[in-house]
Amino acid sequence: MKKISHYILFSILFSLILIIGIGNVYASQSRVIDIRASQFKFEPGRIIVNQGDTVTFKVKTSDVTHGFYIDGYNVDKEVRRGDEVTVTIVADKVGKFKIRCSITCGALHPFMIGEFIVEQGGVNYVFLSSAVGIILVGVSTLLFIWRRDYEYQA
Amino acid sequence: MSIKLSQIKGFLNSFLLHKGTFDLLQIDLIKRLVKHRAFQFAVILPNLFFFWLIILTGFFGSPVGNMNLSITFVWMLWWFALIALLVPLFSRLWCTICPIPSFGEWMQRKGFIRKKEDYKPLGFNKSWPVRFRNIWLQNLGFLILATFSVLLVTRPIVTGIILAILIILASVLAIFYAKRVFCRYICPVGGFLGLFSMFSSIELRVKKKELCVHHFSKECIKGCETSYGCPWFEYPGSMERNNFCGLCFECVKACPFNNIALNLRSFGKDILAKVGRSLDEAWKAFIMLTLAILYILVMQGPWGWIRDLANVFYSPSYGFALNGIEGFLLYAGLFWGTSLGLTPVTFLGFSYLSKAFSKASLPLRRLFIDFSYELIPLALGAWIAFSIPIIMVNWSYIVNTLSDPFGWGWNLFGTKEIPWTPITPEFIPYLQVLIVTIGLFYSIKLGFKLSSQHFLEKNLALRAFIPQLAFLIGTSILLAWLFVG
Description:
A: 4-stranded mixed beta sheet; elongated; B: 2 domains
């Protein structure tokens, strides 16, 4: 049991070092991103910025009226054909936020999705910590059950 | 009706702490309810009304999915309720209330509720061919539907047509074949309901098996004056898994000894049952895991070009125009190739490693099939995670269409104008990762016990399971990448 505790402790420490160690400090930037909305996609589909960046979205539609909504960032704009809608935000929250169409635009409207990913110093900590968490949960579950619940059932 | 303190304690112990089992039929109200002949008819009837409404709205309502009740009720509300609540908590309770086979069953029984004294089933009452007594046809049916799922879940008329076809098919099969052949061997939903119900926290089982062994009249199979007997071709006396129990409660009505229990139990118990493990079910597990990943990628991912491939009959005016058949074939090939080929072959590789690590003399096929059952909790977790944004983001479409089911501009209950307001959508990815991690936990817990069933020595079981652990963790990280990466 002692060995297992050491193993888990080592894994946690290693993960923490990994998470703390790989991040670099990036200076905030201003970014302008042109987005084209059409049935049923945003182009580009994945937008990756760093925390603290000031991001200006210039959104156009190439077919029907669409909505431009970003989860968690209180952005919800109507984009009509022929217009260009400009939205500026400060990317202060890290993580992955879906960009959605908020105005019914056709059959696949609920699936018209893009992604706005806010990293920290070029690293997606949310995914990294999720992956480390999954590994830790997996390994510790196995070791715990191996020790406690083993039954000879063969 | 009275509920004793000991019953509440037993219920809480079983439901919250997973200590032992608790027979829900101890609760007088539930027992009287399910023993009543009118029970199933009474729960199917309101559901049948919704089915008709769904078919009507599918055929005659707005072609825009989120403005039509057929889409919002089936692919948002029903789907979420089924996969996130009904299956994990109540096994195949959906089959209790499903109206699809009801016409055929009522026709066979020549009535709705009461069993006639001189009962003889109507129809040819044939036996289902032995070679098809598996879930391969269900796997095939599900994959076909899944291939066209982007059309199915966005085009009301496609949903209407499919539901109508399923009702007609179930009814026609009931004319030729005995009992619920459609539910057991054909229904494309039934295949994954059966597989995932193995994880459920509820089970219908006999209390004392020895009582059944020494009881020869077997009313639970053959029926009696108060029951038709099991329409699912199951014998409760030997049942160890939920897979093919449609919770119709005919056996509860039939058993002269009240020997049937509806137990609350711990999650995933059936996955450890050694009976019934087979290649068709293993493939079902691969299909379900793969399709969950593909659906997250296609329907919730940022890659619009994949949606374009899947959306074969796309035209901006919401109509149908054949568009990009080559692309669709590529998409279909991806669906079929990954779920029938890539995932099983990859898993076979990991099973081979399990065999090599443990130096087991067991056939690889045995390890491959048995370990495949460990995928059930993770696959179910992936499906729940996929379904969460459907309800949290799109709930307003459901209440909108409640007031305007056809999308004709009605406002029956004043909910038509409720604006689209996703519920805390920024937290959805975290919730999805959490659910997948819970699925992973159960997959590892049960997977290691599966390994223990084959290896007497403690360390061998662990060594055999290490490649499985790698597969499960790798798949979970892939899912996490789709959610937060």
